[in-house]
Amino acid sequence: MDTTWPVILDMDPGHDDALALLAALALLPVVGVSVVAGNQTVDKTFLNARRVLAMAGQSLPVARGYAKPLVRPLRTAAHVHGASGLDGYAFPPLPEDPAPLYAMSWLETVFSAQPHLNWIATGPLTNVAAFLLGHPHRRHQVRRLCIMGGALSGGNITPAAEFNFYVDPEAAAIVLASGLDIWLVGLDVTHRALLPASAIDRFRELRPPLGEMLWSLFQFFRHHEPHSRERGTPIHDVLAVMALVHPELFEWRETPLTVVTEGADRGALKPTDAGPPVHVAVNVDVDGALAWLDETLQRYRP
Ligand code: BDR
Ligand code: CA
With contact defined as beta carbons under 8 Å apart, do 82 and 220 qualify? Predict the structure, then answer.
């Protein structure tokens, strides 16, 4: 995979989104971030993306995306990420946003300037679906779309559904049917690659104040993430970055998938005969993933 193409991140930070953002910044030519409502309202995810970028010393564009899913009310994950969406650390105040960017027009500007892009989406797929619907001629420019979302079995917000796909199942179904080169990382693998407390403690060795920020955020997250265990905490969204950079650290299945939009199974992944095949991760090299993350974060050492 050519990872030299510019990368767009679409996210709803979120603790694991924040870690994914830092990993992507360390490894990839990120051109900016569009934020979406999900873990918290879009005003909060917008602020959080700007906060993390500022802590990383980066001034990339952050564009505000959809404030609610395509056709239904927003359900947030305050029980996992707190009232701010990024509880656990007292961020310093940020200056006013000087020139507000709106995701649909910002994305169009980015696509018109770049022949090809890679895309990483780690929140509800509202922005991605809306952009693809509104700009169908841009599809061929997307080299690869790596997504954290869904689960082949089980869920984390209902027994059947993963949070991102549950929040906006219509958007997820649109994206999976788009025919893009999609690499989907769901709970089947993110619930395996758990980050041990010792690895979280190593965040403190990163440069100040970034290291302290990350460590404090993950003290909160490890106590609130529902699948967090004695042996470790899921780092869901980070694995979507790894899927772009090191797809060989996963085992993939290629199959057409759609998303249930109504009823008790809303948000669940479902096999279909109708759509194009997507790559879905069915296994992950856990030691390889943790070593990759540790090595990636070394870029933030003092
Ligand atoms: C997903 O839900 C969110 O809470 C996380 O940020 C991640 O994207 C995991 O189900
Ligand atoms: Ca997320």
Answer: yes
CA distance 219 to 224: 9
Q: What is the rounded distance in angstroms from the CA atom of residue 132 to the CA atom of residue 127?
A: 9
Ligand 1 atom nearest to CA at 13: 6
Domain 7-300: give its CATH code: 3.90.245.10
- Please count the CA atoms within 13 angstroms of the CA of 251 that sit on its side-chain side: 8
Q: How far is CA 246 from CA 89, 251, 282, 292, in A?
A: 30, 11, 15, 9
Convert the pLDDT of each residue in 65-83 to its tens digit.
Answer: 999 999 999 999 999 999 9
pLDDT category at 249 given cuts 50, 70, 90 is very high
For the question of residue 236 being annotated catalytic, the response is: yes
Number of the ligand 1 atom closest to the C-alpha atom of 234 = 9
Supply 247's token pair: 């797809």
Residue in 15, 224, 236, 246 annotated catalytic: 236
